[in-house]
């Protein structure tokens, strides 16, 4: 499933520096000619892709990007310095539109692509350019030109890196709500989640990954029971699945195996996808609770979203898995696709 992440920012290129009005003044040269230098051009604003970025999240915090102006011209024909260009890093796959016209200005897909999105204003000419045969002492110069400014709408199609799979009530939505800014509905009845939710999980300063919370899976899902099946497709291209089982489940291991069975019946590689087992609600685990051991080298993590336990370890583990894997290829849809569901 593709999710769309979007952000709007304001960019303004630098204004050009003012041209200078000045006359040569030297000893023994009573009436020197005009020597006012030109203003420097304003800085340009560029967008460039950075493959370390995966979301537009940073633009939720900073929305204004201004390039510096050019400096003013000076006497002795000294031109002003050009304002420095600024570069705004965006993730690969960012589509950029002019917010006012919705015209597509850039479609930045590849690594290291850059595009100038707002041009700095020209510097104004100094009075040295305005001397004529009849006016040898022009007092005229130009102001700097304004830099371009515009509002940009940016859009990024996101793919989930991590898919959460579990029975209804396993705590999937609660987990995504504590790890990301997503605020899905949470309730103590099954099938609270009816459509997938997406959350961007921040990891350390510049890293993040995308998590998808889908409706709960129940036994027989692969035959169309419940809601989960139609959404399993949305986690097909995730890099890893986190299978969630609640610590207050009657038999966590059996629950895990049943979920796996449903993934296997659904097919399309879901059961072969890397996965971890996450035991949730450890704060209400029975006293004699022992962690299930799924075998197959599958890691088991114990967490409590409510008590905030084990979340750091979970993020570490997920990041490790997500960052070392490529996204699986899209597999062709089966001839008769099983979207018809009877809840
Ligand atoms: N004690 C405790 N309760 C939790 C924890 N995580 C979730 N819950 C509770 O479990 C119930 C179900 O949580 P949800 O996050 O809605 O579960 P879900 O897996 O998204 O459920 P569906 O959307 O129905 O599939 C809610 O009442 C939550 O408050 C936890 O760590 N500890
Ligand atoms: Mg839910």
From TrEMBL:
Keywords: Cytoplasm, GTP-binding, Hydrolase, Magnesium, Metal-binding, Nucleotide-binding
GO cellular component, one term: cytoplasm
Top-level EC class as recorded in UniProt: hydrolase
Pfam families registered for this protein in UniProt: GTP1_OBG (PF01018), MMR_HSR1 (PF01926)
Annotated ranges, domain OBG-type G: 160-323
Record GO terms (molecular function): GTP binding; GTPase activity; magnesium ion binding; ribosome binding
Enzyme Commission (EC) number: 3.6.5.-
GO biological process: ribosome biogenesis
Stretches for region Disordered: 120-143, 322-343
NCBIfam families from the UniProt entry: Obg_CgtA, PRK12297.1, PRK12299.1
Homology family: Belongs to the TRAFAC class OBG-HflX-like GTPase superfamily. OBG GTPase family.
Cited function: An essential GTPase which binds GTP, GDP and possibly (p)ppGpp with moderate affinity, with high nucleotide exchange rates and a fairly low GTP hydrolysis rate. Plays a role in control of the cell cycle, stress response, ribosome biogenesis and in those bacteria that undergo differentiation, in morphogenesis control.
Protein name: GTPase Obg
Organism field: Pelodictyon luteolum
Gene that produces this protein: obg
